[in-house]
Design brief:
Strand content: under 5%
Shape: globular
Number of strands: 0
Helix content: over 70%
Structural class: mainly alpha
Number of helices: 18
Radius of gyration: 20 Å
Largest sheet: none
Order of helices and strands: HHHHHHHHHHHHHHHHHH
Oligomer: single chain
Distance between the termini: 26 Å
């Protein structure tokens, strides 16, 4: 006997709850990556390299896992595997100080493996969510998901902060095993209730897996053969904002080595940034559904402000810079993805998300290493370099949105499938 699927909004919320629990894990850890690596003997260059390479792993390897999802149709399996890597690797970071001189290498490896989990799951999860969000408005769907995601990103750092204050940095990492287990349980329940989210997508009558005769070679898929010029222009512009956005690892390192905040307070500031990120995702997602993608032109401006404020000597300016960082991060990880869903047809969305993230990742590793190197030599040079890249990004975005005027405003579906709810 067939079971009536839950409403689309309910599924969006369930996806959000999974991300909430998972974000408690990896955002809780990311809030202290700078202090963790510093405690293990890392320099600013090493912190920039590890955190930048981590973002690159999370992004570039989606070039492989996006096409793999579309070719195999195993969206759920890859989503579950990716979340599993995060749930396991983050708590293992607590073992690093017990490994002596090998501790720094072990910590870097766990950070990269956790980021690999992000690469494995993200194209598949975004493709699944894009189907469901079609029924409620993609800007709002991705925005609500991101807001719930950010509740975890807010809570996780606060939990770590409390554990650091009460015990130690390493205890704070160990207790993140609990929300990791919760995320996996919720994900498995959602998989059982909604085996095929494409039922919510009135714009995608074809099955999610492309027929064999439509498939291209693996390498052609990985580099985005057949995707539009509008998509690639947009991907390059968005990637310039991603690569130039200074990682919180560098900001946390700056706060620690400059004695602007005690280590236990760094995750609290990160949690505040996550709260800002959640609000930004909701607000910008809603505006996007009403006005279209030009709302994203604010992102390069925010990215350019971050190093000038967040890496300065005054705590008040650092807080303002972290707030700008949070808004930029929130838009980059929510509404920017909604535009990809509008530019690419459903059977190739996981591939497109993989290609998009791959371009982001290539620039993220350059940006991470470059920010760490410039931070140790000249803050002025870092500020100027970021500002120049954002001028280019802004011009590319303006050109892309002008050329892609055929985009449906906000990705709204022309009709709602059964079970979509309000």
């Amino acid at each position: 006997m067939s079971r009536t699927p839950p409403s689309a909004w309910r599924v969006v919320w369930w996806f959000g709850f999974v991300s909430l629990a998972a974000d408690m894990v990896y955002e809780g850890a990311r809030s202290v990556y700078g202090p963790v690596l510093a405690a293990l003997g890392a320099s600013a260059l090493v912190v920039g390299l590890v955190t930048g390479a981590g973002e690159a792993v999370a992004l570039v390897l989606r070039l492989a896992f996006g096409p793999l999802a579309d070719r195999s149709g195993r969206y759920w399996s890859l989503t579950i595997l990716g979340y599993g890597l995060t749930a396991v690797c983050v708590p293992l970071l607590a073992l690093a100080p017990r490994l002596g001189t090998a501790g720094l290498g072990f910590a870097a490896t766990m950070i990269l493996l956790e980021r690999l989990g992000k690469a494995v799951r993200s194209p598949s999860k975004s493709a699944l969510l894009a189907h469901v969000a079609t029924a409620v408005g993609r800007g709002r769907g991705f925005g609500v998901h991101k807001a719930l995601d950010q509740v975890g990103a807010l809570t996780g750092p606060l939990v770590v902060s409390a554990a650091v204050a009460a015990a130690s940095l390493w205890v704070g990492l160990a207790i993140l095993a609990v929300p990791g287990a919760v995320a996996m349980l919720l994900l498995l329940v959602l998989r059982r209730r909604v085996p095929d989210p494409a039922v919510y997508d009135a714009t995608s009558p074809r099955p999610a897996r492309a027929p064999v005769h439509e498939r291209r070679g693996w390498w052609a898929e990985a580099v985005g053969a057949g995707l539009s010029g509008d998509f690639f222009r947009y991907a390059l512009a968005a990637s310039l904002t991603t690569g130039a956005l200074v990682t919180f690892g560098i900001i946390g390192y700056h706060l620690t080595v400059e004695d602007l905040l005690p280590v236990a307070a760094v995750p609290v500031l990160y949690a505040a940034a996550m709260a800002v990120e959640a609000v930004a995702a909701l607000v910008v997602g809603s505006v996007y559904d009403r006005t279209g993608p030009t709302v994203l032109l604010v992102v390069p401006v925010l990215v350019a402000l971050v190093p000038a404020l967040a890496l300065g000597p005054a705590l008040a300016a650092v807080v303002a810079g972290v707030a700008a960082w949070g808004v930029a991060q929130g838009v980059q990880d929510s509404t920017i993805k909604a535009v990809v869903a509008d530019l690419v047809e459903a059977p190739r969305r996981a591939t497109a998300y993989g290609v998009f993230a791959g371009i982001q990742g290539l620039l993220a590793v350059v940006g991470g290493v470059g920010a760490g190197w410039l931070y140790e030599r000249s803050l002025v040079a870092l500020v100027i370099t970021v500002a120049l890249t954002q001028v280019v990004a802004l011009l590319l975005l303006v050109d892309t949105f002008r050329r892609a005027g055929r985009l449906r405003r906000g990705g709204r579906a022309s009709r709602r499938p059964a079970g979509s709810g309000r």
